[in-house]
């Protein structure tokens, strides 16, 4: 298993955002985390990347517990993420945004960054090359000199993925990557995530676009009100009574609102 979530709970004051949730992700899988709004999906990402510590339970990555490790240590171990709200440096070029992602794993310290040693110049060249390769992977190489803020929305989301990939993740966490995308952009996002999987990277994805989730994921966990409602293949999830009810219940709420 690449990632083991073991009996994880998270309380924010009186809110039980996650209640005793467990699931495991195998090497090379695309694993979906779905559920209605407020179900606890992003909280789970925030626990895996230790923006918050779990109230109880354990998170095990590559057979080591990472509960309580600092976020940058977790990145070093090989977990990277994108965010629901795009977090790019809007005034930097696409290339620089990806290079910044790679810096979190480059070895040069403060001394060399002040005096620009030979080692740092070499590292900069390597980072530049790697950033270009990643931009090519996500289909943005021709826009490498474009400021992030001038990219189309779908392109910004792809750039976020390239930036997360710059630190060589073994596990990539994608938080609603298709949000705001049109059908064509979503189709090419599907191809991109499959390509990432073919490179041996494990993917955990939160997504509300159900056709995409069902087409893309090998297995899925459904959360509802902080609890695990179901786990299984896309077909099992689509036929699960409790899941259908949770989603239909929401639709009825929306309809009567
Ligand atoms: N930092 C926080 N402080 C207090 N409550 C929080 C915090 N983060 C999340 N919550 C609460 O935890 C619950 C789960 O929220 P979370 O954002 O994880 O849901 P989600 O499944 O990602 O929802 P969405 O699909 O709308 O993004 C919600 O009730 C939310 O208000």
From TrEMBL:
Q: Does the keyword Nucleotide-binding apply?
A: yes
**Classification via CDD domains:** ABC_Mj1267_LivG_branched (cd03219)
| Sorted UniProt keywords | ATP-binding, Nucleotide-binding, Transport
Does the record's keyword annotation contain Transport? yes
GO process annotations (BP):
D-alanine transmembrane transport; L-alanine transport; L-isoleucine import across plasma membrane; L-valine import across plasma membrane
Q: Which residues form the signal peptide?
A: none
* Domain of life of the native organism: Bacteria
Example GO molecular function: ATP binding
Instruction: Give me the Gene Ontology terms describing cellular component.
Output: plasma membrane
Matching entries from InterPro entries are given as: AAA+_ATPase, ABC_AA/LPS_Transport, ABC_transporter-like_ATP-bd, ABC_transporter-like_CS, BCA_ABC_TP_C, P-loop_NTPase
Where in this chain does the record put each ABC transporter domain?
3-250
What is the protein named? ABC transporter
UniProt source species: Ureibacillus sinduriensis BLB-1 = JCM 15800
């Amino acid at each position: 298993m690449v990632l083991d979530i073991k009996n994880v709970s998270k309380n924010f004051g009186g809110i039980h955002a996650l209640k005793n949730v467990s699931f495991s992700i195998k090497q090379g899988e695309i694993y979906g985390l779905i559920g209605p709004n407020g179900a606890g999906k992003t909280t789970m990402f925030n626990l895996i990347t230790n923006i918050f510590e779990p109230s109880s339970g354990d998170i095990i990555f590559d057979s080591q517990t990472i509960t309580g490790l600092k976020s940058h240590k977790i990145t070093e171990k090989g977990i990277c993420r994108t965010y629901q709200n795009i977090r790019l440096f809007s005034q930097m070029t696409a290339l620089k945004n990806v290079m910044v992602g790679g810096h979190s794993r480059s070895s040069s310290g403060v001394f060399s960054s002040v005096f620009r040693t030979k080692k740092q110049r070499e590292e900069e060249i390597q980072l530049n090359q790697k950033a270009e390769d990643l931009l090519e992977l996500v289909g943005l190489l021709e826009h490498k000199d474009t400021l992030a803020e001038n990219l189309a929305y779908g392109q910004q989301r792809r750039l976020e993925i390239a930036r997360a990939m710059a630190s060589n993740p073994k596990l990539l966490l994608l938080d609603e990557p298709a949000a705001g995308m049109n059908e064509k952009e979503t189709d090419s996002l599907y191809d991109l995530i499959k390509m990432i999987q073919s490179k041996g990277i494990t993917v955990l994805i939160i997504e509300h676009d159900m056709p995409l989730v069902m087409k893309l994921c090998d297995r899925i966990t459904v959360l509802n009100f902080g609890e695990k409602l179901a786990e299984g293949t896309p077909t099992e999830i689509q036929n699960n009574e409790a899941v259908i009810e949770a989603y239909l219940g929401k639709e009825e709420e929306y309809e009567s609102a």
